Amino acid sequence: MDPVVQVHQRKSGAMTELYITARPQVAADVQTQADTLLRAVADVLRQHGAHVLQERIFADPAAMETLSKTRARTFADFVNGVEPTYLSVPPNSLGPVSGVLVHALAGCGKPEVLSIAGKPSGRRVPMGSWTYLIGCNLQSDVTQPPAGQARAMLDKAEALLSEAGGTLANVSRTWMWLGNILDWYDDFNRVRNELFKARGLLREGGAGTLPASTGIGIGPWGQRCCTMDFCAVLGDQKPRFLLAGGNQDAASKYNSAFSRAAVSATPAGKTVYVSGTAAIDAAGQTTHLGDIQGQIADTIANVNAVLRNASCEPDDVVSAVAYCKTPQVERAFRDGWGALLRGPYVVAIADVCRENLLFEVEATAIAKT
């Protein structure tokens, strides 16, 4: 079984930045999917002499043990103690493994590993006058309630940033993986808003310098209810944030503290991060209630509009995830809309942050300039 493996690369001098997307193209058992997908990714890394910066695996929780063992064997050349972010999603129409996303770098040696309380939790790439920082799979104590876990994971992000000499103001992009999101999304927003206000990122009236973000109903593998990844730039490179963008006003006006997109330095150039985007209008209301096709169409149109605000086109996308609330939404997306979402993508079944939202897309694009 050959997987779909798409590699987008950008060069700057001796440095090459790689975005690798691997997903099944036919249904198969978990061991077959684990072997073929992870071997394909490892082959790309080996071919370029690249080192992993960020790594995510979307799969059925029952498949994770197999994936973890296969990864340890297949990635023996690349393992540096930082675990991938294993994200628990139901099987989709092609089987237990939804896909693998890897952001990697070649041409500048191994990234420096940073740890929190002895656990490898991030990677740092010095770039002269600035530093690129990735936080990976930042989880909290399982004994706390969801809101407490959310605050604890944000505290870990601050600890990792502090270790590198930065603060939350340096963060350009966050990914918040929130299991059972519909049960406690208001609590999560309260925790994040309180922290961002305390740090000066969120100001009165919804203004602020807020990272692009995804907050989606996918939990980490294991017993914890949430985990997060982030990327940040420290030094003389400052991200540019689009608080509002495309067809949508600022999310902070309806109590969610993120920008629609961020334009940020990454090791080989500028990258555009489009936040998790759904069928929401300029007033913050869900469009096309109960209409799968309508919400998919609006979502893709909203993503493309944000990309253009950030000086990108849909064809510039190098990595994306399409989140489908149900298998019915997944089928509708694959049957009629997959070709219209440009660039490589993984499809995952997940709750979106409102009960009436059926579909969400996040995207990463390489800016033209």
Write up this protein.
By secondary structure, this protein is an alpha+beta fold. The chain has one domain (4-366): RutC-like (60s Ribosomal Protein L30, Chain: A, 2-Layer Sandwich). 25% of the residues lie in helices and 35% in strands. It has helices spanning 30-48, 64-74, 146-163, 181-198, 292-309, 327-336; strands at residues 4-12, 15-23, 51-59, 85-88, 97-106, 112-116, 119-126, 130-139, 171-178, 212-216, 219-220, 226-235, 240-242, 261-266, 269-277, 317-324, 345-349, 359-366. Strands 1-2-5-3-4-11 form a six-stranded mixed sheet, with helices on one face. Strand 7 (119-126) and strand 8 form a beta hairpin.
Distance linking N and C termini: 38 Å
Q: What is the class in the CATH system?
A: Alpha Beta
- Strand/helix succession: EEHEHEEEEEHEHEEEEEEHEHEE
CATH architecture title: 2-Layer Sandwich
What is the CATH third-level topology name? Answer: 60s Ribosomal Protein L30, Chain: A
So what's the overall shape? Answer: globular
Lateral arrangement of strands in the main beta sheet: 1-2-5-3-4-11
Strand content: 25-35%
Number of helices: 6
When the domains are counted, the total is 1
Structural category: alpha+beta
Number of strands: 18
